[in-house]
Amino acid sequence: MIISKNIVFKYVLVGFLLMGAGGSLHAQKNDRDLQKLQLAYKLISTFYVDSTNDEKLVEDAIVGMLTKLDPHSVYISKEEVAKMNEPLDGSFEGIGVQFNIFKDTLMVVTPISGGPSEKVGIQAGDRILTIDGENVAGVGLKNTDVFSKLKGKKGTKVKLQILRNNVKDLISFTVTRDKIPIYSVEATYMATPQIGYVKINQFSGTTHAEFEKALKKLSDQGMQDLILDLRGNPGGYLKAAIDISDELLTEKKLIVYTEGLTSPRKDYIAGGKGLFESGRVVILIDEGSASASEIVSGAVQDWDRGVVIGRRSYGKGLVQRPLNLPDGSMIRLTIAKYYTPSGRSIQKPYNKGLESYQREIYDRYSNGEVLNVDSIHLDTEKKYYTKTKQRLVYGGGGVMPDLFVPADTTGFSPYYRDLVASGALNQFVLNYLDIHRKQLEAEYLTFEQFNKKFEVGESMLNELIAEGKKRKLKSDVEEFKKVSVLLAKAQIKALIARSLYTSSEYFETINPSTRVYNKALQLLLSESEYTNLLN
């Protein structure tokens, strides 16, 4: 066992050191370093007072090396590799339901459109009581248990017994697992007769195709201008970001370039005619917009193609390459930095260590940056100019929007915060839908009817407060009634819309209650204000 582990260990270290050293330039020194590490490993394995876990020793050594590099070079165990790839690949294998654990019972929030559960007739609100004959109700089921029981290889079958409202007997289903799509374009709709809205939640292998579909759909509906929402989007595939940018930029424009010590500069250029090269564009970003999101917003900003509004983005400008190891594990190693068309690196500093790097986002809240533009501290020495209008932009810490819009704290109260954090808000919505779903589906055949006519009344708010009392929330209910009612009503209505329809209707319902979205609409409805920002 020790011999085989030494072979793996040597393979890892040789590959790692050679990549870092550029091949044979420092071969003799690398050999000495490798021998030193091998000797340390052998001494521990041979003489340590207790038994050792050889595999963990190797993994810890790799992790230790990577932590000395940058915050995004990481080791991923073989168990985590498959889980990590699912969202970026754009699919997983299972039965295709969104679920919630409601009163210690597995409840279907909605079957995924076109998935195997929908095809056999499983409906929103159904309670799954048994899975392959095993009782799963009232046993303290956790989300991880659900995943392990319902996910599985395509073509395998799972037997379910379901309790449905207003149906006396249990209903039995046999569901054949299949590929279940994970959509990265989360919402697509017309905000006004001329303005389209698209929200992208990550950049995966299917994002470009989804974005193309969204643009074509909105164009058919008369879209002239576009709001592209990248708030909270942590990034993903570089190629997806390039392809999205290519739809917005004209031919031969530089989108981004990458360069590293052992990675020569590589330019990514816009190709042929994109689907939306001429209409006005507003991109929404915040401190959760990172990596691929910053590539898109940086390219649009640097070419003066559109207006970026919101709050300063995360600041991740490092490119990782996945390097597979013999046992199925992986190293994601930073090999280059990416630069926007103007030459900006928007990577924020990480020289103070991992903890400080990760805490930086929280520091933005504590120092007031998310509320006040004057509290933002940019590296003013890293000045750059946009490619067309020569507007001043900065590097070294995220993309700074053309128009700062502070975090919207209107309506937030400690009691509302606690209602959300404790799960009382979601629980109330689940309770309400459990009782009223059939009535709502019969009354509101379309989302347009629901959005126009459905109102969250006082009785519903009182039920929400009652749910909070069950959790013994100690914050001020009266303050909630004074400042948070409109926000709570909007959130409740949006959550109901998502359950009755899709996530797109959730955003169509909730967005009009947010400041940055309304500012985007205002810009696009005002030719002069939009133009002034680009000048």
From TrEMBL:
A biological-process GO annotation: signal transduction
PROSITE patterns: PDZ
InterPro entries: ClpP/crotonase-like_dom_sf, CtpA/B_N, PDZ, PDZ_sf, Peptidase_S41A, Tail-specific_protease
The entry's keywords: Hydrolase, Protease, Serine protease
Gene Ontology cellular component list: outer membrane-bounded periplasmic space
Pfam families documented for this protein: CtpB_N-like (PF22694), PDZ_2 (PF13180), Peptidase_S41 (PF03572)
NCBIfam families: prc
Family of the protein in this entry: Belongs to the peptidase S41A family.
Identification of the protein by name: C-terminal processing peptidase-3. Serine peptidase. MEROPS family S41A
